[in-house]
Amino acid sequence: MTHHHLKAGPETCHWGYFDPRLKPVLAIKSGDEVTVDSVSGNPEFMPDPAKFGIPPELKEIHARTEHGPGPHILTGPIFVEGATPGRVLEVRILDVSLRQNWGYNVIRPLAGALPDDFDEQRNIFIPLDKARMVGTLPWGLELELAPFFGVMGVAPPEGWGRITSIVPRAMGGNLDNKELGAGATLYLPVFREGALFSCGDGHGVQGDGEVCVTAIETALQGRFQFIARNDLTFTYPRAETATHYITMGMDPDLDQCTVMALRDMLVLLGEKANLSREDAYTLCSLAADVRVTQLVNGSKGIHVMIAKSIVHPTKDAA
User: Fold this and answer.
1) What is the pTM of this model?
2) Whole-angstrom Cα distance, residue 22 to residue 247?
């Protein structure tokens, strides 16, 4: 196993899109670890540099990187040797840490879960204390941080061409799933040779729903291990934590999101516990949690979580 460090910069970042034609900025072997630096924020969301530290590469990225249809600055893509179309890339999220001492939050008119309720845009900057892992909101509340990458995805199918980073799809992308912090594992279907993984959209903390469009948006550093799983063939993102299995659904219709995530959970329970669809459906009704991932990305999100201790009652939950 080799460890790599992929820094953020104009040569290693793409802004606002996924594209199957993007050339990889790093090539690794399956099983390698990569520390990835991310940045966050358009020029309008920059604080006073006398008060907050701004990553020096961010200004150069703004000046030299093509701005696509979405807002997210993504680091990558990473080519993983052995990751082949039709199979799965396993992304182990080993660590996630803050890269700066501030984040921002934005309310935009005609956006979010309450699009008609706010007529003026509001931008606020939130100091982040890395030692104590809290952010201090403008009214004085200290909020415990739980950082994760809002966007983690692989290249889309070639026929899709360039797509916005806003809408989550089968290749992952803007999942905004707060469960995907340090210690979680994300499984992404592969559509292009090498998978071509990118990440960004660092969140200091976010509630399920992300209702006002933004979390505490900030720059993060993540440490990942990438494994080409040529023994897996499922076609939509899944995840797991130390304690839970997670399936996902994304669609403009929240009901359809639920259908997608639940159907995949029935399949997962068949795989993991050899349950029939009927038994799996009953178990989901009794023991699974259906949660709203986010409501604000064009395609909304639902994730279904079930405890490993229930699926494997005689095994260690880990």
Assistant:
1) 0.96
2) 28
